[in-house]
Amino acid sequence: MKHLIIIGGGGMGKEIFYTAKHSMGYGTEFDIKGFLDDNIHSLDGFHGYPPVLNTIRDYQPEPDDVFTCSIGDVYVKRKLCEMIKSKGGEFQTLIHKDAQLRENITIGNGTIIDCYAGIGSDAVVGENCLIQMYSGIAHDCKVGDYCRIDVRAQLVGGVQLGNNVTIHTNSIISHGVTIGDDAKVGALSFVIRKVKPGITVQGNPAKRIEY
What we know:
This protein has 2 helices and 23 strands. The protein is mainly beta.
């Protein structure tokens, strides 16, 4: 039996705790050991959760530990995951029992697929991605590592995402569109053309925005 540790004991960490308990393999392949958080008091006053075991930096993986990361910011998430991997830690893929998966799917280590998310035939999803509730990745899409796809966002067939891409809530990426590394798509956007690496787009149709 593997022992799952959730990186991040905040609000999203509590959500991932629920997802993990309802994922394939829970209770047979893995249980939940606890959380890591730099604020060791992050769950004080909350009930029904396992303990915060240590800070992220100070924890040393033990035999049979596996990890998942609840951090929303893709760059912070990558940094923390790489820190754990440098200590020999391994990441557990979590697939909620109510997710819908088609044929010939490839899913990387550490990726979280939440309830009612759909992954289409021959889609490829990289490692340590977060695919949230009711989102959809259609047939033949390719999603890089450390991507975040928020609630009800939809990738139509053949979409390609680079690494560290964030697609916010209720956005649609049209058929065959490519989105480069480190790009962001704002909520409620409809993306109909290629998005260059490192830029943010928003709107319908989505256009580049500056901060």
